[in-house]
Each structure stands twice: as structure tokens, then as C-alpha cells.
Specification:
Largest sheet: 6 strands, antiparallel
Distance between the termini: 27 Å
Order of helices and strands: EHEEEHHHHHEHHHEHEEEEEEEEH
Strand order of the largest sheet: 1-3-2-14-13-12
Number of helices: 11
Shape: globular
Radius of gyration: 19 Å
Number of strands: 14
Helix content: 25-40%
Structural class: alpha+beta
Length: about 375
Amino acid sequence: MSVLAGHYDPAFKEIAEIFEESFAAGRERGAALAVTVDGRLVVDVWGGTRDEEQSQPWERNTVVNVFSATKAVAALCAHHLAERGLLDLNAPVVTYWPEFGAAGKEEVTVSQLLDHSAGLPALREPLPPGTLFNWTAMTDALAAEEPWWEPGTRHGYHVVTFGFLVGEVLRRADGRSVRDLVRDEIAAPLGIDLFIGLPERLSEQAAYLPPTEPPTAAQMEAPAARALMDPTSMAARAFTNPADLVEPGLVNTQRWRQADIPASNGHANARALATMYGVLAAGGTVEGVHLLQQTVDTLARERVSGVDAVLFAPTRFSLGFMLPNELRPYSPGDRVFGHPGAGGALGFCDLDARMAFGYTPNRTVTTLHGADPRWTPLTTALYGCL
């Protein structure tokens, strides 16, 4: 008997079968997988369990924390506002957020926030517990912070600061929080389960996340792992300051789920990611819903590349999206953009194939370098089905 629920087009049977085999092999606990082509949902399947005791089945509307895949959602909001004339991506940040100009940041542009070249991946001074949930405290600290490098001269992954930096610019330009922009401009028009700040009434839809499985001994030899062992390093601060970021079990609390942390606490299912990216893969408009109308091609255009100052491996970014790279090789396509999340979540689209992919597991695996071991069998099968 199949362990999967949902449906798929027979032409995509192979990817559905590989996904199903992952459960039998113990690689999955609970997860969902979705694919769109030309805006049409051709794979929408899910299986496994969603609770701590592994007694409740994963359901059609189950959502899970997708961690950094959230960054792409915030970035899409920026592009959406730019097309409406409310935000100039090439303008200095101080155009919208005057206080940001402190400590030599007067010329930092909105685009440099989006492509991780602004030099603000971490905060130097340790912040007290609870600061992660205080929007004003986080944005005030970032406004006062001195860049770790001359903005625009290199790039480094803005692990958590990305969401507050981009989010504050969006708030100043439009008046709405990222939470409300996502709801109003993406989730509601598309009818998808996509949230930054999960409403309390939907808390039962959220899957439990077991403790992240540690990296292997071989992975601990990666340069990033060595850097993280020094608590005073820029990389360690990027991942651990505020201290809330390393609080055990935080991701399963209502406080985390309901917060507005646009770099890392988005909740979605695979269908939501594939649908959102599917509109972009189809040119920005599907069935009268417009996410973007003119600038989709720019989302796949490389802005920065090379060794990442925070992750210590080659990465590539466009304006707000991670492009396939040595550290995260999630697609073989040429005009591809998307974003992975810690532990395995992944959403992306391939403009040439007019295809989008969403994958949302609750078994989170630490992969310090390379693809999550579950991605490659799925994406290889997917491209073989196209």
C-alpha cells in the first residue's frame, strides 16, 4: 500500500516513486513534495507523520518551518513593491530608513541588502535573550552596526540579519510588515499556505521538528564548521547572536511560529512553494494573479559569486535568491533561482523549463557542504520527467 497521499501526473511517476521510497528507507519522517509546469500542479504528494510521537499523519494542509527558504519570500515582496514603484532597489537604504546611515553605511543600497554584499551578516555585541522577537531592537542594532567589510566589495550570507534589513526597508517603503505583505500580496491571491508569522488559529497545522541531526565527522572538517567553533568569529555571531537562535526546541514554540522573522521562520508546505515559484516560472502571472510582470528574468541573474565570507565556500546570489552553487547544488539548470532552508527545505524554479519545485520535510539534516542527500535523487528524476 502506498504511504503517499495526494496526486501526480503519470508523466511524473518516477519522482513520486523516489519520494515514496525515501520513507521506506527511513530518510523521511514527514514531508511533502510538489512540482508545477507552466503553472499547473503536476505533482502534489505528501506522507509520513507530523507530530512528536509520530502518530498523526501528515495532511494536505500541514505546514513546516522552511528556515532560510523564507528569504526568497521576503525578496519577492521587495521585487513586487519595486514593480509597483514603491521601492527603488538601486537607491541607498537611507532613502527609506534614514537611521541606517550610521557607522559609514550612507551609500549601502537596497540591492546590496538583497545580494548579501552589505557587510552586515552579524551583530558584534551580544544581544540579550528575547531580542530576536523584538523588531525594533533588532533593526536599531543593525542601523547602528558598522559593516564587517566595505559594502559591495565581497559577499557573505546574512543568515538572520537579511530578514530584518530587507524587512525594515519594506516596512518603511510600504507601511506593512513582511508578515502582512506576504499574506496580502502572495499567499491570499494564490490561495496557498505560506506564512511569516503563523496565525495562532493554524498552529495545529504546523509539523513538529525533531532535533536537527548533527553533521558527520567528515562534514565537521569543512571550513565553515571550524569557523563556527570560534564564538568570537563573524560566522559564529551570524548564527548565534541573538542567543535565542541556539535555544533548544525554540522552533516548536508558539513564540517562534508566530513571530515576524523574515529570514528564517516562514511556514509553508511544498504546494505553496511550488505554486509561488510556479507563477514566476510561467512569467510572473498565472490565472490573473500577478506577482511580477516585467522583471522575472532578473531573479536568475547573478549579482555576486565566489567564496562566501560567512559560509567559507563558493556561493552565488541574485537579488534575494540563492542560485545553484558549489555549496548548495540544487539544480542543473542555467536560468534557475530559489532558496534552500536549513535541514532540507527547498523551493526553486527553472525559467527555461517553466518548472517549479517545492520540498518541505520535518526531518532536518545538517549538511555543511553540498546538496541535502534527499535532493539529488528527486531533482534528477524531475529533470528526467520533463
